[in-house]
Amino acid sequence: MLQKIRIGISLISFLLIFLYCLTFATRNSEPLDVFFLVGDPVNLPVALWFGLILTLGCIIGLLAGVMSVLSKKRHIRRLQKALDEAQERSGRLP
């Protein structure tokens, strides 16, 4: 029962966010020139710029999270190895 409620809340939240993004995109369709340090300016709608920046931020956040998880797993492996060695040494004590 709790699982169904959680899925329902997630679905409603997704739909509200999707509708908000759709409304935002339709209201912000004016083109915007962005001047980078080199090259010609890039002309895209404001909503598309926001979407690109949001996607880039999500990718960077996911990469940072993956790096953190991998680092923690490596640390856990080292600690487990040290624990196994300590237990082995303690088993050989007279």
Tell me about this structure.
The chain is mainly α and 94 residues long. It has one domain. Helices cover 77% and strands 9% of the residues. The protein has two helices and two strands. 0% of the residues are buried.
Supply the key terms:
94 residues, mainly alpha, single chain, 9% strand, two-stranded antiparallel ribbon
The helix/strand class is mainly alpha
Number of helices: 2
Quantity of strands, as a count: 2
- Please indicate the count of domains: 1
Coarse morphology: elongated
Strand content: 5-15%
Profile the largest sheet.
Answer: 2 strands, antiparallel
Strand order of the main beta sheet, please?
1-2
Helix content: over 70%
Q: Which whole number gives the mean pLDDT?
A: 91
What value does the Rg take, in angstroms?
25 Å
Order of helices and strands: HEEH
End-to-end Cα distance, whole Å, is 56 Å
Low-pLDDT residue spans: none
Q: Mind sketching the topology for me?
A:
Layout: H1 2-27, E1 31-34, E2 42-45, H2 46-91
Antiparallel strand pairs: 1-2
Concise structural overview:
By secondary structure, this protein is mainly alpha-helical. It is 77% helix and 9% strand. Strands 1-2 form a two-stranded antiparallel ribbon.
